[in-house]
Amino acid sequence: xxxxxxxxxxxxxxxxxxxxxxxxxxxxxxxxxxxxxxxxxxxxxxxxxxxxxxxxxxxxxxxxxxxxxxxxxxxxxxxxxxxxxxxxxxxxxxxxxxxxxxxxxxxxxxxxxxxxxxxxxxxxxxxxxxxxxxxxxxxxxxxxxxxxxxxxxxxxxxxxxxxxxxxxxxxxxxxxxxxxxxxxxxxxxxxxxxxxxxxxxxxxxxxxxxxxxxxxxxxxxxxxxxxxxxxxxxxxxxxxxxxxxxxxxxxxxxxxxxxxxxxxxxxxxxxxxxxxxxxxxxxxxxxxxxxxxxxxxxxxxxxxxxxxxxxxxxxxxxxxxxxxxxxxxxxxxxxxxxxxxxxxxxxxxxxxxxxxxxxxxxxxxxxxxxxxxxxxxxxxxxxxxxxxxxx
Length: 391
Hints:
Elements (H helix, E strand, L loop, with lengths): L1 E3 L5 E7 L8 H19 L4 E5 L3 H9 L1 H13 L2 E7 L23 H17 L6 E6 L5 H4 L3 H25 L2 E6 L10 H11 L4 E6 H6 L4 H11 L3 E6 L1 E5 L5 H8 L10 E5 L2 E5 L2 H5 L10 E7 L9 E3 L1 H12 L8 E4 L16 H21 L3 E2 L2
Parallel strand pairs: 2-3, 2-14, 3-4, 4-5, 5-6, 6-7, 7-8, 8-14
Antiparallel strand pairs: 1-2, 1-15, 9-12, 9-13, 10-11, 10-12
Helix pairs in contact: 1-2, 1-13, 2-3, 2-4, 4-6, 7-9
């Protein structure tokens, strides 16, 4: 979906296909047929943006066979789908029964991460619509905090990898005329946990093709103030290459037994749900939700937030809620001003099948309805901010 900003530029809205995990190229094509095109039809649109997730094997198949890449581009066009952004965070196995810490490997200290991200940038340059010259890729925020933190050699390796990536993106732009930028996606528990953590390493690299992807669920989980966070990035000259529109789980009174019980229903074995609370002594947290609800790992006199991407249009029932207000505030600051701070927005609720059983979609039809409802909410927010939806 495309929108005209009051300054005349185009803002793109997509939804991320990591909600339909597939490891192979055949699986990606099935996603387009079984999920993405039905969502487009529900929205009554001739064209729908998707934030494509290409696992390692699918990306390699496209990289190794130009005919397959041309066929995928043709299929996207034929189904009324367009790609201006890729999710390059998960490398493989995102549809496994247990993902947890494995989603952070390979990290930016490992050559495979650089190679994969380079492949994604090159593929995206070929998949961009003919009238679009800018693409974005979101990526791992360097590494999970252990064993990276405190290791100067790891920091040097990461800097070298990102510098090499920037050089390759420059060469790609010169060769193709397409500018692809990569954004580190701050996430709780990682070396770059907050937007503030991104400033030093990105300043070190010092390249305008390497910036930040602001995920509003992660921002909220870490209790970052959107105004402060975005102002600091802008002041430091760090580009916000894209934003993922998502909402976290919020518990206002975690000391109450019914609140603990409600939170426990969201603790599940597939994904990591880092949980945080903001206290007078600073931010406290656990790596997963079950660690918080089953013991005394977290102080419970202040609200808790958990890294669980809940559907934008359907916050959990009381006594829980979502951080949709943080998304609204962030979005207003990103695109509500005289010029957009980013032009690529991506709804990213990949946890539909990890929701408590009663809330999960049971059919493809229900899932498509839910994704369409999320996109409708995002569209309405953009229109309320003065953007005009384009055909």
